[in-house]
Amino acid sequence: MSRKKIVIVEDEPDILEVLSYNLKREGYDVLTAAEGSSGLALIRREIPDLVLLDLMLPGLDGIEICGSIKKDAQTQHCLIIMVTAKGEESDIVLGLGVGADDYIAKPFSPRELIARVKAVLRRGVMAERHEPEEHITLGDLSIDTVKYKVQVKGHDVKLTASEFKLLHFLSSYPGRVFTREQLLSKALGDDVVIVDRNIDVHIRGIRKKLELDPPIIETIRGIGYRMTDHF
Ligand code: CA
Fold first, then answer.
1. Distance in Å, CA 179 to ligand 1 centroid
2. Which of 78, 111, 128 is the endpoint of a domain?
């Protein structure tokens, strides 16, 4: 397997150093930029597998860069992890909305960083060969997408159509955070009979019916929801 190429765009030298050092040590090809416009130019030239993107940058900010990467056919398959600070929840929501794949909040440990990078790269590989799965099994949960059947520990669970769609969608991307907006448009978008467009209500319904403790759908405060990837 060829070495994965990662571009880091980060204007704080200390953080850039930590990111770069740890990713190189892990065997990745690492290229860096400390400013937004040169960062985007570097990404366009190198077409990396993954971009680690600070949000607050001189020049172009992270959200603009993220949008540009995902709008350009050349670069839209680059995976993006936003590197964020505490209190940037609304920017994270924006970033996920324009196509960022994940985020990591400062301060983070090298271990956390590497785990996140590996998880996102792995999900990227899975997405490439994405075929609709007939059966999804996550821990005690199993979903039959042909028969629209959900079971927990072998017992049937009755979900509404919207709950099923949401659960199926989230289960297809364990570990990935989605905003409420994304869940509405991506998971329920073509559902013309959604009675309630309030995602929180559906999630509550799913959790109650699955009776799994801790709930496998995690609330990400200020941002949205994700299916756990700890099974
Ligand atoms: Ca910054």
1. 23
2. 128
